[in-house]
Amino acid sequence: MTSVELGVFLPVGNGGWITSTTSPQLPATYAYNKSVTILAEEMGFDFALAMAKWRGYGGPSQHWDFTLESMSIMSGLAECTSRIGVWGTVHTMIFHPAVIAKMVAGIDEISGGRFGLNIVAGSNPADLGQMGLWQDLDHEGRYALAEEWVTVAKRLWTEERVDHDGRFYKLTDCMSNPKPKKAPPIICAGASDRGFRFTIKNCTGSFLLGSNRDDFVKTALRAKELAAEAGSDDFKTYGLFTIVPGATDKQAQERVDYYNSGVDAEALDNQTREYSMDPSLKQNTMANRFIAQGESRNSMSPAAIIGSPETIARKLADIVINGKLNGITVIVPDFIDDLKTIGIDVVQGLHDHGVQTNAYAHQHGG
Ligand SMILES: Cc1cc2nc3c(=O)[nH]c(=O)nc-3n(C[C@H](O)[C@H](O)[C@H](O)COP(=O)(O)O)c2cc1C
């Protein structure tokens, strides 16, 4: 039996990850995300992750014009849960590592050691530039900054006083107390080879995506291969999956068709424009995914898994087993009803296909 962690990508931006006026118009509120996280915990999910985004895409759906700040939201969710991992995201370019080191120590205490940190080395010049915080670094430079950032944060979590004289940060006799009980898991979704290398060297795991089944498996195996080359055998890979369930395959496809009938082309164009501004566009894999989605006028990821719980379980199990994934992170159109379908029916189907989750064990008295 293969074992995987199961997580939910919290909809902290309005509309979730479907850019449409006919999809569920999810509110970017703490109350909604709290209901989702408590439900996920009750079903035995392993973690809830909040993204970080600062600027929306407008259009008739006002896509992501409302987004909750990741660390503060996860801090609240840490207080109102007791078992699930609470993972927050920061852009390394816009926060000093000593500021986040202390925030992490705080959420570590609130959560009793359940906090995980997702770091983003990139984004784009509009998202961070609107507040004058985009630094004019090329792709390599952004990962060099992230590398120094993580080094400083880890030192502050373990050393009493830190002196550091680097390219991006200078710390003099810097104290950071309290400390987290142990350094939190650090995850990064850098998907270029440079991104993977950075992640393998500095983090505990990698978030990854695929544009279709084969690409997913290839990318996941590539991450494991690079990790093995670097001598890291316990490096974890977490796939991010957009999933649209239905009672039957046909009903699931009808949902997708309906959401696509209301695709918000204006918001997609704004997203495409925003990511096209990145001077290192060639290397930014996420930017290229967004641009391709915009051009194809798809309201959601073109790699979405669409079907009955049985179909979804079979397709997910295939990617998990063949890509040797350690975790599944899910996006769904509706994070209450659809999440229940994933947490109960798909989890059962995964079990039947040889993929074990804590959610299954939790629901069956394990
Ligand atoms: C699961 C997942 C979560 C991500 N979260 C964020 C986020 O919160 N904010 C953000 O700006 N980018 C986010 N990204 C984008 C990546 O961090 C990264 O910038 C992108 O994959 C480009 O990597 P590259 O520069 O190595 O090509 C996420 C990607 C994935 C797959």
Automatic annotation (TrEMBL):
GO terms for biological process: alkanesulfonate catabolic process. Keywords: Flavoprotein, FMN, Monooxygenase, Oxidoreductase. Coiled coil: none annotated. InterPro entries: Luciferase-like_dom, Luciferase-like_sf, SsuD_RutA_monooxygenase. Residues 5-319 form the Luciferase-like domain. GO terms for molecular function: alkanesulfonate monooxygenase activity. PANTHER family: ALKANESULFONATE MONOOXYGENASE (PTHR42847), ALKANESULFONATE MONOOXYGENASE-RELATED (PTHR42847:SF4). This is LLM class flavin-dependent oxidoreductase.
